[in-house]
TrEMBL record:
Name this protein carries in UniProt: Cytochrome P450
Annotated signal sequence range: none
Entry annotated with the keyword Metal-binding: yes
Xref: PANTHER family: BIFUNCTIONAL ALBAFLAVENONE MONOOXYGENASE_TERPENE SYNTHASE, CYTOCHROME P450 FAMILY 4
Family: Belongs to the cytochrome P450 family.
Pfam family, one: p450
Keyword Iron: yes
Source organism: Streptomyces gobitricini
Keywords annotated in UniProt: Heme, Iron, Metal-binding, Monooxygenase, Oxidoreductase
Domain of life: Bacteria
Length: 464
């Protein structure tokens, strides 16, 4: 344990907050802003006092992040306080589980995210985007301005269901995406409470949450029942989960376990990619030279045909562009852990049971590890997979044993979607709209992302 010269435990610096409630009100009011201001004032390890003498730590140094996510990851399971607030929505899937159960489920899921199987997803991704391109044609003719956020959600949900579960939900994608957003909004509200209200207490928000969850459960359990009856089921992620057996007992997953894993894919398998696409199109509008370079590269590589997975190695600038999008606006902008035993981070005492937050959003803006950290410079990723920063300074998909298993899908899907849409349209931010993130379960744009849609010549001409 790190001690001062007088023999006292070294406590990390941080804001004092208010009597009794500590920093709780500030964290509830504006988590992104409070974290950002405290990090800039106090440094790479910040301690926030919470009600009940609890401690919350924010860490923003690659060495400290590696310590938590890799070197001592066994001492840092998912934060049970946060997990407990997710469980009514996602249950015990990959996102919330810890220990042996998590790694068993991860081993079952991992083959669905590797090698040629991933490349095989590309046609479905491009086809779904082509459907969106055709749906948008009347809007582009009117040069309509609309919030692209729900549109990207609808598209990403359609893609994840076609690729991972061999199921076409295009007719219900809007309904299911709305249900997911309601569940996430309710969970976010609970995450920001430091005094938990009884779940039996009726409220309008809880009623909306339960209805939305029922909508999703009805769909997911129906999908599971249908797949169990299908003797010629496709070899996709759901089938692999259905056929999986426990190595010791030989038991298969229950319908509830299957439901939790499918819903976990709703949470992490499509919403993160959808939000990264929203931020990507906003950045293209704000940086015309990047848009010009991306369009020129797509035209050179693809011509008038639709993009394919084989094109991606040649779309170097587009890949670098997307990596820079993830640097500035990582969809999972914070992740939390809780040490099982007392530990030391950066020379400061971290008691067992504390909440330890890692923020990719802040780590990606650290002036010590990033040149022009607030600037938008895709070129930095043309030379290096980590933009020239240390490995644990670039963590859009986490790092260590719990690296997001679907990261390979995201880096395939997003460039293909961007390329296909750019072949058909130009998206321009509505005048006066300020692109500002707000803290939610993921990094949402405050006030949505209203953009004007216009036709450009290319593949879209033949798709009308």
């Amino acid at each position: 344990m790190s001690l001062t010269s007088s023999g006292r435990v070294r406590h990390a610096p941080g804001p004092q907050g208010y009597p009794v409630v500590g920093c709780g009100p500030d964290l509830v009011r504006d988590l992104v802003g409070t974290f950002t201001r405290a990090w800039r004032e106090y440094g790479d390890v910040v301690r926030f006092r919470l009600p009940g003498k609890r401690n919350l730590f924010l860490i923003a140094h690659p060495d400290h992040i590696k310590h938590v996510l890799d070197e001592r990851q066994a001492n840092y399971p998912k934060d049970p306080l946060s997990v407990g607030k997710f469980e009514p929505w996602v249950g015990q899937g990959l996102f919330t589980s810890n220990g042996d159960f998590h790694f068993r489920q991860r081993r079952l899921a991992q083959p669905a995210f590797k090698g040629s199987r991933i490349a095989g997803f590309a046609p479905a991704m491009v086809d779904a985007t082509g459907d969106l391109v055709r749906d948008w044609h009347p809007r582009a003719t009117r040069e309509e301005t609309f919030d692209i956020t729900p549109e990207m959600f609808r598209l990403a949900l359609t893609i994840v269901m076609r690729t991972l579960f061999s199921t076409d939900v295009s007719g219900r994608a809007g309904e299911l995406a709305r249900a997911v957003r309601i569940c996430n909004a309710y969970t976010n509200t609970r995450l920001q409470r430091f005094v938990e209200l009884p779940q039996s207490l009726p409220s309008r928000a809880r009623t909306r949450f339960l209805r939305a969850r029922d909508t999703l459960d009805s769909f997911v359990y129906g999908l599971i029942e249908e797949r169990r009856r299908d003797s010629s089921a496709p070899d996709d992620l759901l089938t692999r989960f259905l056929r999986a057996q426990d190595e010791q007992t030989g038991e298969r997953m229950s319908d509830k376990q299957l439901r939790d894993e499918v819903v976990t894919m709703f949470l992490g398998g499509y919403e993160t990619t959808a939000l990264s696409l929203v931020w990507a199109f906003s950045l293209l509008s704000r940086h015309p030279e990047s848009e010009r370079r991306a369009r020129a590269e797509i035209a050179e590589v693809c011509g008038d045909r639709e993009p394919t997975a084989a094109d991606l190695p040649k779309l170097r600038y587009l890949k670098a562009f997307y990596q820079e999008v993830l640097r500035l606006y990582p969809s999972v902008w914070t992740m939390s852990r809780s040490p099982l035993e007392d530990d030391e981070i950066g020379g400061y005492h971290v008691p067992a049971g504390s909440q330890v937050f890692i923020s990719p959003y802040l780590m990606h803006r650290h002036p010590r590890f990033w040149e022009n950290p607030e600037g938008f410079l895709p070129e930095r990723f043309e030379k290096s997979a980590t933009g020239g920063a240390p490995l644990y300074a670039y963590i859009p998909f986490s790092r260590g044993p719990r690296l997001c298993p679907g990261s390979s899908v995201a880096v395939l899907e997003a460039p293909l979607v961007i390329a296909r849409i750019l072949q058909a349209y130009r998206l321009t931010l509505a005048g006066g709209h300020v692109c500002e993130p707000t803290s939610n379960v993921f990094l949402y744009p405050r006030g949505g992302m209203p953009m004007r849609l216009e036709h450009v010549k290319g593949v879209a001409e033949g798709a009308r």
